[in-house]
Structure formats: structure tokens, C-alpha cells
């Protein structure tokens, strides 16, 4: 049943604004970094590793947390706006199954956005090549590792934002939480207290030069996300179809 629900949810968002944002949010990052590189280029070969890291830094610091807030808000907001929660729950499914299906859908969108980011970075490098820049060693960056880290370490954010957007009808609340939480990444991420702030996990995993920090952020992400998922799913099962 859960797999059929996921298929149904995917069909429902084929032409949605959330799907468009999955492509546009990464594009905003790559376009920004592309023109920054053009503006700051002063001759000589482009340092491609720094170019990749610049894109992933802006993505992890700023755009990915905001995208998660926006995507989860839109995915659940459609049901709030059209008053279809109770209609869905009249079907032979439980609230927990629907909650988990929506959660999986949110994860698919995050993975899709991460894939779009790295694909668009590769395209931008190709454009540099067409413009006459040397692209030697441009793809020696371990973008597969970065993609996996970005996807795994965003799990706690997805769990929090998904629960908020499920529980609250007004999309402003999850978006406001996303903005406020994102604003704290820079300051808290530079302190030893980053381990208590899940919004820093992506940034620490992607941009820390110490392998043990990336491993710690990944482990914390899995643990925190697992705990949050269990708590949220249990809560949904108790509360049923009650929404604010």
C-alpha cells in the first residue's frame, strides 16, 4: 500500500510548482556562481575544485535548507489548500501511511534537487569550455561523495519541515521556520555547538576539510532523522486527521 501511495503522490506533482522549484533553486545557485567566476577571473586556469566547492557551499549554507522548507510546504500545502486530507483518509489507508508517503516524496524532491545541482554545475563547466576556458581536471572533484553527503545530511531538516508543513495549514509557518533556521547556520556552524543544530550538518559535511567532521555530521544526520521520524510517525498515528 505504501508504494502505491508514493506512486499516487508522484502522479499528483507532475506539473506542480514544487517540481519547478526542484529545478529552479539549484539553477539559481549555478547561475550565480557562474557569473561570479566570470567576474573574478583574472587569467590563468580556473581552479575547478574551488568552483565546485563554491557551488556546494552556497547550496548547503543557504539554498538547500530553503528549498526543503519550500518543497515540503508546497507538497503538504496542496492538501491543506484543497481540503483533501480527510478525503485521502477516507480511503483504506492510515494517517501514518500517508505521512510516510509524503515524507518519501519530500526525500525524492531533495535527491532530485541535489542531482539537478550537480548536473547544472557540469553543464556550466561545459559552457566555460565552449567559451575557450580550459576544463582540464574539471571533473576530478568527487561530486558523487558530495551528492551523497548533501542528500543524507539533509534528512533531519526534511523531517522537521515535513512535520511542520503537515501539521500547520498556513504555508507561512514552515517557510518562516526555514528562513529563521537558515539564518543561524553561519553563526552556529562556526561554533562547537553545531552538533546540536541539524541545519548545519549539510554545510559541515560538504565544506569541512576534516574527514572525521563529515563522518560525524553524517552519523548525526541519520540518528537525528531516525528519531524524528519515529516520533513524528507515532504522533500522527495518535492524532489521526486533526490539523490546525
Explain this structure.
By secondary structure, the protein is an all-alpha fold. It has one domain. The protein contains eleven helices and no strands. It starts with a helix and ends in a 5-residue tail after the last helix. Mean pLDDT is 88; it is low at 240-244. Pfam families: ABC2_membrane_4.
Short description, anyone?
The chain has 244 residues and is mainly alpha-helical. It is built from eleven helices and no strands.
Helices, strands, pairings?
Blueprint: H1 2-12, H2 17-40, H3 48-82, H4 85-88, H5 95-130, H6 143-153, H7 155-167, H8 172-183, H9 185-189, H10 201-207, H11 211-239
N-to-C span: 27 Å
Radius of gyration: 19 Å
Category by helix and strand content: mainly alpha
Give the overall form: globular
The figure for the number of domains is 1
Regions with little confidence, pLDDT below 50 for 5+ residues: 240-244
How many strands, what sense, and barrel or not for the largest sheet?
none
Pattern of helices and strands: HHHHHHHHHHH
Q: Write down how many β-strands occur, each being a DSSP E stretch of 2 or more residues.
A: 0
Overall average residue pLDDT: 88
State the helical fraction. Answer: over 70%
Helical region count? 11
Strand content: under 5%
Organism: Undibacterium danionis
Transmembrane segments: 16-38, 58-77, 98-131, 143-164, 171-189, 213-236
Protein name: ABC transporter permease
Pfam families: ABC2_membrane_4
Amino acid at each position: 500500500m505504501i508504494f502505491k501511495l508514493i506512486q499516487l503522490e508522484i502522479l499528483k506533482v507532475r506539473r506542480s510548482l514544487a517540481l519547478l522549484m526542484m529545478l529552479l533553486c539549484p539553477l539559481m545557485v549555478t547561475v550565480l556562481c557562474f557569473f561570479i567566476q566570470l567576474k573574478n577571473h583574472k587569467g590563468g586556469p580556473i581552479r575547478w575544485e574551488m568552483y565546485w566547492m563554491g557551488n556546494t557551499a552556497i547550496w548547503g549554507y543557504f539554498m538547500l535548507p530553503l528549498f526543503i522548507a519550500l518543497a515540503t510546504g508546497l507538497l503538504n500545502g496542496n492538501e491543506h489548500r484543497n481540503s483533501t486530507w480527510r478525503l485521502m483518509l477516507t480511503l483504506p489507508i492510515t494517517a501514518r501511511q500517508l505521512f510516510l508517503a509524503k515524507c518519501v516524496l519530500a526525500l525524492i524532491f531533495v535527491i532530485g534537487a541535489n542531482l539537478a545541482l550537480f548536473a547544472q554545475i557540469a553543464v556550466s563547466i561545459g559552457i566555460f569550455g565552449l567559451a575557450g576556458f580550459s576544463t582540464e581536471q574539471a571533473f576530478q572533484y568527487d561530486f558523487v561523495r558530495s551528492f551523497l553527503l548533501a542528500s543524507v545530511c539533509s534528512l533531519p531538516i526534511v523531517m522537521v519541515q515535513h512535520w511542520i508543513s503537515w501539521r500547520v495549514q498556513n504555508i507561512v509557518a514552515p517557510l518562516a521556520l526555514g528562513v529563521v533556521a537558515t539564518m543561524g547556520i553561519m553563526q552556529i556552524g562556526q561554533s562547537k555547538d553545531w552538533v546540536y543544530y541539524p541545519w548545519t550538518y549539510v554545510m559541515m559535511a560538504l565544506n569541512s576539510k576534516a574527514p572525521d567532521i563529515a563522518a560525524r555530521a553524517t552519523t548525526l544526520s541519520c540518528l537525528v532523522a531516525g528519531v524524528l521520524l519515529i516520533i513524528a510517525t507515532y504522533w500522527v498515528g495518535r492524532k489521526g486527521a486533526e490539523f490546525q
